[in-house]
Amino acid sequence: MGYLLEGVQQGIGLLFSGNIETWSAIAVSLQASLLSITAALIIGAPAGFVLGYYEFPGRRQIRAVFDTLLALPTVVVGLVVYGFVSSRGPLGHMELLFTVSGIVVAQTILILPIVISLTASAIESLDMRLGNTLITLGASRRQIVLTSLYEAKIAVLTAAVTAYGRAISEVGVSMMIGGNIKWHTRTITTAIALESGKGNFAMGIALGLVLLTIAFTVNASLIILKKMSK
Amino acid sequence: MKVENTSHHFLVRDLEYAYSGNFRLQVPHLVIDRGQSLGISGPNGCGKSTLLRLLAFLETPQAGSIELVQAAGGDTKRLHHRITLLLQDHYLLKRSVFENVAYGLRVRGDRENLRDRVFRALQDSGLDPERFAGRKWHELSGGEARRVSLAARLILKPEALLLDEPVANIDRESALLIKDVINTLKERDNMTMIISSHDQTWLAGVTDSIIQMRDGKITGLLYENSLQGPWHPDIDGLWAMDIQDAGKIYASKPPAPYSRGILDPANIIIATREQADLSAQNLLRGTVESMEQIHYTDSISVKVKTGTTHFACTVTHHAAENLHIFPGKTVWLIFKASSIIWE
């Protein structure tokens, strides 16, 4: 037990003393996850709107596919993206392997189904009268998409928070595509895996605390937003 | 640009629309004039809402066409920027009353004097802007919410305002206010209005003419006579209203001196000679002004001018033939005091 407490103490010490190695991993994690959530929202929110708003043949099947992909294993995404971006792969010339950009691409693929599926559910649960109301008020197609997403903002934000939580906490993609290169592509999660493997428990705990704090902050801000929009 | 008769606003031809298997809306012909205020009445499920949704271009006809005629020199704005519909199940966006009313202008990129215009629209809808502009969508009663929805459409100053059951399920005060709003718009802005309601009496107070629908078809054109009073007590326990240059109209006791009486055109008998010894209390001399075939019926609507007042009467083809009536002919209108019903 003393061993654990000592780890926590040392971990906090590492954070507050501004240990560069620790903070580098945190910076990479934040950079990658923020870029991937942005990309996933830009692609996924309109796609989710289309899936939730319009009736078209095959819609149910596509919904089912994205619902299934919610549980996409990170290592499978890692494997597939690796296959594409490795030097022998079709996208090898883009030199994404072992870069933060590569992590962003793979994380975006990982969390896109979450954004699409949850946004579609959010739009489906909107009042049926909304679309017609917006048309009668003269909204264009683009304005209808934006207003509908705004009307469903809490549910869309929940989708974003869920997706972000998955991006920042995953290990598989960061490890396989990023390669856990110190100062470059080492993220919070890959660092924890490596450091605890090496017996460097303090750094693992320090990073674990940061990860928990980020998750808590994001969820707390969602709760505050929900309250504010009431 | 195609300009047909510029007094026409909506031209409906051979319109058909069916859904859920057994309901079919069929309107072979309907013309709505610019500035006209048309009522649509009929029981639930008769197709009123469907017709309004089609006229608002929310649904696409399965057969036939609806044309919104351009005014001479009118601009070519998008259809949904020219007309607007207040849906029966109206809906407020999850934002403040102010933002709900401003939404239509915002999507048009029109932000000039936004605050003043929103306040005026709220005022026009009978809502105190200072009290209501800052409220959230859920801080309103049903009638208030409906008036906010109305304000959100008035602010757009559309060519045509379509209202689907605007007074269903709301309090009496709101119903009266909405009536005043509509009448003001008619006079002030000469806006074309198409209003559906199952409440024929209310509808008669806000429209020039009413079409009746049943099972997806227009079954007739209904004109009603609205007698605004003031009423005063007269002989034999009857009450009377003076008509300028034509004498008096007798009615049973109204609920209030300024109550509005409704006289069904079918309850007026037209005679070509002055009748003596009548059991009916009302006998008015007038001149036939116009006659019009009522669509899809064998009836004719006859407009008769007595003094400064017009009466709409309905007669069958057969009766019109027997009476030899034609515009310009002097006739007598006969109806019972008890035919006048109170709003």
Characterise this structure.
- The complex is a heterodimer of chains A (230) and B (343).
- By secondary structure, chain A is an all-alpha fold.
- Chain A has eleven helices and no strands.
- The N and C termini of chain A lie far apart (45 Å).
- The mean pLDDT of chain A is 91.
- Chain B has 343 residues and is of the alpha+beta class.
- Chain B has two domains: 8-222, Rossmann fold; 225-342, OB fold (Dihydrolipoamide Acetyltransferase, E2P) (Beta Barrel), CATH 2.40.50.100.
- In chain B, the strands form five sheets. A six-stranded mixed β-sheet of chain B has the order 5-6-7-3-8-9, with helices on both faces. In chain B, strands 15-19-16-17-18 form a five-stranded antiparallel β-sheet. Chain B has a three-stranded antiparallel β-sheet with strand order 2-1-4, covered by helices on one side.
- The chains are: A mainly alpha (230), B alpha+beta (343).
Topology record:
The complex is a heterodimer of chains A (230) and B (343).
Chain A: H1 2-16, H2 20-53, H3 59-69, H4 74-85, H5 100-124, H6 129-136, H7 141-151, H8 153-169, H9 172-178, H10 188-198, H11 201-228
Chain B: E1 8-19, E2 23-33, E3 37-41, H1 48-55, E4 63-68, H2 79-82, E5 83-86, H3 97-107, H4 114-124, H5 129-132, H6 142-154, E6 160-164, H7 172-189, E7 192-197, H8 200-204, E8 209-214, E9 217-222, E10 225-227, E11 232-233, E12 239-243, E13 247-251, E14 261-263, E15 269-271, E16 282-293, E17 299-306, E18 309-316, H9 317-323, E19 330-335, E20 340-342
Parallel strand pairs in B: 3-7, 3-8, 5-6, 6-7
Antiparallel strand pairs in B: 1-2, 1-4, 8-9, 10-14, 11-12, 12-13, 14-20, 15-19, 16-17, 16-19, 17-18
